[in-house]
Amino acid sequence: MGWGVKSRGRRIGQWLALVVLGTTVLLSCVGLLGCASGTTSASRATPWTGTSPYLEPSLYPVAVGLDWGFIDKTGNLAMPLEFEGATDFQEGLAGVKVNGAWGFIDSRGEVVIKPQFQQVDPFSEGLAAVQEGDRWGYVDYSGKYVIQPQFAGAGDFGEGLAPALKNEKDDWGYIDRSGQFVIEPKFMYGAWKFGDDLAAVEDEDTMGYVDPSGKYVANNFHVAGNFSGGFAIASVLTGTEGEKYGVINTKGKFVAKPEFGNGYEFSEGLGAVEKGDLWGYVDETGALVIQPQFKWAFGFHNGLAQVKVGPGDPGEMAYIDKTGKVIWRESDATGGSLNSSSSTS
What we know:
Number of strands: 32
CATH topology: Methylamine Dehydrogenase, Chain H
Helix content: under 10%
Number of helices: 1
Structural class: mainly beta
């Protein structure tokens, strides 16, 4: 999870920043965006082979009102509600907002990169996209710029490439770790993180997938999500039923007839889908394994997924495990204790 929507087009999960975060943050959502200027080579980027020096904890950002903290996998408060915003932990670090600026903390809550940025995305392949002024660049674990701020938009690195937008009026493309475009800026409305050697891109009225050379593998979807473990959520427009979502494989084929009214990213073997007015989760065969019961549902991260439950609109923030059990919900936050034994929405 983890995010900041910088695309100009439609997209699975595009409403996340509005619905979930309210005034502050994101959960990552998803890796985002795509490209901009310059020349191009079709050569494949060198994959990242490094490792993070920081422990990857099972901690999850939560908000109570405007205050953010972190719970553990059992729903207990692990870090106090003292931040103005927070992202997921990725590669051992999480973005937090303090006094109006974003920085990064480790699993002990210690500041690793001091708050100084307008926005941040979580770390991916050793680099994090950060915004300074109106430009995006990339920092390493020490907070040092590896790619200087120069882009109007920038997304997560995946398989050695990251989507980036040089200027607002440009198209999206992909840069390597030197900051050079290796897939030319040619995607009008957006480009997203590579996974399984495929990246979702949007141009004109369709979305599709390109390989690391920038060649289209499929270009026939209305909405296309990121691949994870060989599968993704995508949608097509049908003549009689309108837009329908389902699970596709890396060949761009639906594993089962698309039948859902909305969908979100496929992650950790499950994809969030909407049936009727409620959200649940499907597995790699497209079968429902967590029945629709939530107001909104997002991707799994380290075994838990954020959902919206309860009365009202848009409902309250909650986390579920892979059985659909609610581990924590916002209304359980009383007296400084965050713990939930709830099992339904």
